[in-house]
Amino acid sequence: MPEKLFKVHKEEYMLPGNRACSGCGLSLAYRYVLKALRENTILTLPASCLTVLHGLYPTTSVAIPSLNCTFASTAASASGLVAGLAAMNRSDITVVAIAGDGGTFDIGIQALSGAAERGTDFIFVCYDNEGYMNTGTQRSSATPMGALTTTTPVLTKQQNKKDMMKIMEGHDIPYLATTSPSFPIDLYDKFVKAKRIKGTRYLQIATPCPPGWVFPPKDTVKIGRLAVETGIVVLYEIENGKFRFTGRSKTLAEKGTRAPVIQFVERQGRFKKMSLEQLGQFQRWVDHKWAEYLKRAEG
Fold it and tell me: What is this structure's pTM?
């Protein structure tokens, strides 16, 4: 659908030149996120790779008002902004909280859960690069089984990734979605939709990280596509409890075909110590999750 490219907002809110790593999947995604959110948006973000991308005061590479907060308080910061804007009768401004998987799955989950339970009117975005990448690639609960990190230097991570989407769905919020920078139009459309919805909205971006995942920066888009082609990352949205596949995942579900996970694993240095047993477990875990999604789509 190449004609849809003309529907993407032309204005650029991420300016030329930033401090992100070469091939950063976050920087690719963030460009389209900001295009979808546009003006009348306030961002809040904790210490993270995104803080690095934004730059050091008094300069920044992002042309939207932003507030830096502590690691654990991203959703609390957003809740405060929502309350302040309500007191000023500024219902025209969208508050958007953006954190990595460490600041979402782990350190920030308490504030996020509280805000979601209250139905606070903001968008929470998790850019999921599956580890604490800004501080040197430490393990998070989003790190997949079999991956090497600086805190799992001998044995690879032994546990499967936490299902944060399922946790957030349990809060009965009106909109959740998964996205990938390798499929920018799907990502853009979901953020446009999220801005129009009221209440707590949660979007998760599967974000390839060249230094943390150990692959050449030129392969970022390819790695992101393989994640979807194998079913490790599934593109979908849940609106008012209704699940539906989107984009490439919808096509894969209709065709009934997926690539084996080894095609994703073998291209990344972080999996170099993954055993054959773990590879088999990883494939079965992905197959199980995929079957759950198919069952939901049919219902």
Answer: 0.96
